[in-house]
Amino acid sequence: MKQLFQHAAMTDGVTVRVAVNFLPEQSRVDAGKWFWVYHIRIENSSSQQVQLLTRHWRITDGRGLVNFVDGEGVVGEQPLLQPGQSHDYVSGCPLGTPTGSMEGHYTMQRADGSLFEVAIPFFPLAAPAPAD
User: Fold this and answer.
1) Phi–psi pair at 24, nearest 5 degrees
2) Is 126 exposed, middle or buried (0-12, 13-18, 19+ CB in 10 A)?
3) pLDDT for 94-108, tens place per residue?
4) DSSP state of 119
5) Residue 1 in this model has a pLDDT that exceeds 60
6) CATH pick for 7-126 out of 3.40.190.10, 3.30.420.40, 2.60.40.1470, 3.30.450.20
7) Quick check: 54 pLDDT over 50?
8) Cβ atoms of residues 120 and 9 within 8 Å
């Protein structure tokens, strides 16, 4: 199945693409828990190798409550991307509301040791309305 990336942002030749899906089978709406899975593809179209060092997420729920998540790498990896390479990973986000959003950045390092931030595009989290 080919993944449809709905959101993208490019910074200094590095593109971050995001596809997000609500997972009803992982959610417990009756208990006030909603769950989304997101697929991220990081593409290096710059002329230098880059390595993802850290991630910074801003997660906002439907009430406007903001949580920040910072950490090393993504799903336990700090991928090194040569020019023309890409890295894909999948992760998830639980919320206590049926809507919200995510955005953030990765801190990347070039081969010369310089650091730069790569934008993760804003993307909404929205559960489908319950069927009557």
Assistant:
1) -60, -30
2) middle
3) 999 999 999 999 999
4) E
5) no
6) 2.60.40.1470
7) yes
8) yes
